[in-house]
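Section 5: illustrative case.
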């Protein structure tokens, strides 16, 4: 099925119902990638495709309704999408929904997330019990004190942690989430102690859950067992972070390797976690347009980069069209053609510096939405209501 049709089918179903510059590759584990790929990819691809297909919503083609505007009224011109000067000028918001009527219905449904609801994904790597050596090159690590300050600042500014499933439902159909939401994503394999020493107290105090983007090549029984226990306890949600992982997906790698990296997590997650991942966290932040297409083919609903371009809102994702000499490690997302598969993430050591900006962007978006509310609702009433029905009222 072509990628566009698959994306549209997924969209309709939902509406209806570790860091290094991309050009630098970390040390590669001892594994003959080509031999492993040649021998395993064919069977893994078949198994993963079956697993993904079984886990996806139905893909039975659903024809889009044909709008029948009210012939006695002229619809107003729709206002432009919200923009803000709080983003870098090269990082501009992109929409991803193509049906205006369905977008407006989801946006103004009073049972859904209110306009201005903002999601801040944060990427964690190492959290050191001692000091972080600034000369070590581990610029994505933070100290334990910095970690606790970040968590408390988020809470004090009104943020609440959500799960990956909640994030998907929000992004696809504007499902209700806290007005200021944060997605806590810990990259790479971790032993249980790493979570117990850091995030567990916030799960106990505030009910905050955490996402672990998990590398699936290592089959150490003790590591898998500990993470399976965390998954079963319900406060650590594992999502895909590649198989070999240390060889980034770039234009120079084969499609066979890309398929392995994207498909193998389905097999391993089913084996150890009894679940199917819905998000792919791109190793090293590297992706290509073809890799994004393949991710959709396998059934991933979201993908995350390492580019801290800004927060996410419903049908609103900051993206760049071209490389920025001032930030050479940030791959431009627009050429990949799929904002939901190239979502931004803030880096944990720097996230505190952006909390207030995220909050302000959400507040600006809410004000702008209110200023165009009457126009958008009139447009919906004239163009959409006869086909899609009147806007819902507040539920029980």
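Designed sequence:
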């Amino acid at each position: 099925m072509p990628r566009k049709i698959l994306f549209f089918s997924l969209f309709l179903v939902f509406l209806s119902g570790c860091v290094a510059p991309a050009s630098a590759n970390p040390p590669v584990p001892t594994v003959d990638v080509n031999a492993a790929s040649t021998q395993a990819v064919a069977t893994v691809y078949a198994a993963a495709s079956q697993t993904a297909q079984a886990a996806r919503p139905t893909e039975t083609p659903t024809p889009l309704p044909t709008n029948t505007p009210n012939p006695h009224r002229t619809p107003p011109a729709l206002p432009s999408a919200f923009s803000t000067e709080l983003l870098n000028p090269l990082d501009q918001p992109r929409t991803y929904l193509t049906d205006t009527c369905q977008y407006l219905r989801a946006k103004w449904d009073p049972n859904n997330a209110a306009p201005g609801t903002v999601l801040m994904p944060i990427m964690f790597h190492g959290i050191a019990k001692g000091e972080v050596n600034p000369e070590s090159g581990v610029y994505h690590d933070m100290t334990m004190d910095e970690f606790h300050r970040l968590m408390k600042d988020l809470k004090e500014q009104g943020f609440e942690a959500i799960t990956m499933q909640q994030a998907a439902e929000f992004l696809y159909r504007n499902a209700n989430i806290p007005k200021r939401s944060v997605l806590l994503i810990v990259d790479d394999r971790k032993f249980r102690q790493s979570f117990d020493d850091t995030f567990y107290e916030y799960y106990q105090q505030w009910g905050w859950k955490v996402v672990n983007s998990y590398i699936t090549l290592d089959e150490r029984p003790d590591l898998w067992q500990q993470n399976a226990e965390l998954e079963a306890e319900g406060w650590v949600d594992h999502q895909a972070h590649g198989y070999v992982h240390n060889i980034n997906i770039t234009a120079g790698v084969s499609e066979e390797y890309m398929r392995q990296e994207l498909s193998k997590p389905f097999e391993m997650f089913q084996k150890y976690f009894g679940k199917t991942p819905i998000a792919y966290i791109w190793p090293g932040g590297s992706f290509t347009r073809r890799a994004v297409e393949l991710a959709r083919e396998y059934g991933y609903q979201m993908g995350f980069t390492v580019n801290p371009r800004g927060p996410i809102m419903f049908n609103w994702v900051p993206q760049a069209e071209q490389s920025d000499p001032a930030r050479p490690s940030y791959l431009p997302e627009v050429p990949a053609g799929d904002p939901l598969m190239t979502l931004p993430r803030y880096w944990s050591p720097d996230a505190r510096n952006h909390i207030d900006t995220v909050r302000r962007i959400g507040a600006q978006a809410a004000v702008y939405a209110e200023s165009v509310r009457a126009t958008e609702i009139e447009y919906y009433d004239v163009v959409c209501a006869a086909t899609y029905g009147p806007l819902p009222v507040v539920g029980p």
